[in-house]
Structure formats: C-alpha cells, structure tokens
Structure prediction request, 104 residues.
Amino acid sequence: MEKLKERWGIESNWSLLAILIVFAINGSFAAWVAKPVTNFIGLNPDTISGFIYWPLRILLIFPIYQLTLPIVGWLFGQFKFFWEFEKKFLSRLGLGFLFKTEKE
Prediction:
C-alpha cells in the first residue's frame, strides 16, 4: 500500500481506501450502465450472436468507465486525483490534445 501511496502522491490511508473503492464501484457501475445503452442502440443477446454482442458491449464499457470515473471520484471527494488520472491515461492513448489549452 505504501508503494501505491508514493506512486500516486497520496498521503493518507483514507484517501487510498476511497480511491480503491471508487475504482471498484465505477467498474460495476460502467458494466451496469452498458446494458441499457446496448439495448437502446438495438444490441441484444437474444437478437444477435453472442460473439458479436459481448465484444461490442465490452468496447462500450470502456468509454462509459472513462466518463464516469471522475464523477464517481467526485462523490468520494477524490475528483482532483481522478481528473489527473484521466488526463494522464487519455494522453497515453493519444488523446492528450483534448486537454491542451491555448496560450494567450
């Protein structure tokens, strides 16, 4: 736990616990939200092959997870950590331009 605290720049055990809880809750939440979204766009395991449905649903969970992570983090008082986490993660995926600000 000390290595995580050092790596993430966290000082208190309570903050670390809150961050780990946010990761756990958000994973379940993203999977839960993906089901009605897939139904809304017409993807249903009863109407299409599971070989198509499940990969598409998993691909859909990824952006939902990324969008909801700072929100769930905010609910636990860890918005700053998760906002920085998202910016770093998306920058590694080549989407860092989304967070660049123009200098005046």
In short: The mean pLDDT is 87. Residues 13-40 form the longest helix (28 residues).
